[in-house]
Amino acid sequence: MSNKSNSDRLFFLDLGAGRVLSVNPDGSDLKTVLIEGYGPHPDGIAVDARRGYIYWTNMGADPNANDGSIERCDLDGKNRAVIIPPGGTHTPKQLKIDHASARLYWCDREGMRVMRSNLDGSDVETLVQTGSSEADRRDQRNWCVGIAVDADRGKIYWSQKGPDNAGQGRIFRAKLEIPAGQTAAARKDIELLFDRLPEPIDLELDPRNRMIYWTDRGNPPRGNSVNRAPMDAHRPPERLLGDLMEAIGLSLDLEGDRMFFTDLAGTLYRARLDGSEKTVLLWAQGNLSGAAFVAGLAG
To answer: What does residue 195 show for φ and ψ, rounded to 5 degrees?
Structure first.
């Protein structure tokens, strides 16, 4: 694993206590950036180092209450602001920034949507709608969870987790823009890349090597793992490592040949991109969810 600048920083979330945290990539200098408190359940995090903001999604106090939101604050935790108010998105999960277009992308689990907005929360759009009725909402196969953006090729990727331990999880791909004459609920460009997965959660891309990575919950041996597969070749996934306790957050440092990932048991891990050298950086940190690595950021 290559040496990296000591100004690299990892941001991650404790959904149980509602904390935004940061740490050095070796697990040192743990800081609490912001405390929301119990209730909002933060899940997805993205950092815009250029503009100086941390963004995160809140699933809300009750997944049935349509009270999800998105917030942002300065890198030091100051100037906290709600940019998507409660109810503007149902149960937002993983969050990504497309810096070129200055947009946020996220998945809305019980809302059964893939969504985006401007960085200030304006112009909210639904790009994919997998269901609309209460019956649709009860079917966890419609729940959109993880998201990744390949802006250079104009594609979005997302996961639909399926019921617990059912082996019905899937990963899809579509164009960033809805084709002319089509709608979010009736798109003809959606590709099913992988199916019969345990419970795929967060996604990450390696565009240069055309690989997609994801965390998978569900039962061993395939579940509670980190996996990867070619983005275009439709080959079976490669299970990189397992033995996690409800795997969730994932972030790649492609230049440093390393990845960071979390589980709900409160553990933060690091490993090489091939899954070797798995290392526990922190443990017993609450109920950890999303993670975002940032290179070259002063701690």
So the answer is: -135, 180
| pLDDT exceeds 50 at position 2 | no
- pLDDT for 27-70, tens place per residue? 999 999 999 888 799 999 999 999 999 999 999 988 889 999 99
Q: Which CATH number do you get for residue 46?
A: 2.120.10.30
Q: Is residue 72 part of a domain?
A: yes
CA-CA distance, 44 to 26, in Å (whole number)? 22
Q: Tell me, yes or no, whether 1 lies in a domain.
A: no
Edge-to-edge strand list for the sheet holding 225-230: 199-206, 211-217, 225-230, 238-241
Domain-located, residue 299:
no
On whether the pTM is more than 0.85, the answer is yes
Asked, for residue 66, whether it belongs to a domain, the answer is: yes
Segments forming the whole domain that contains residue 170: 9-294
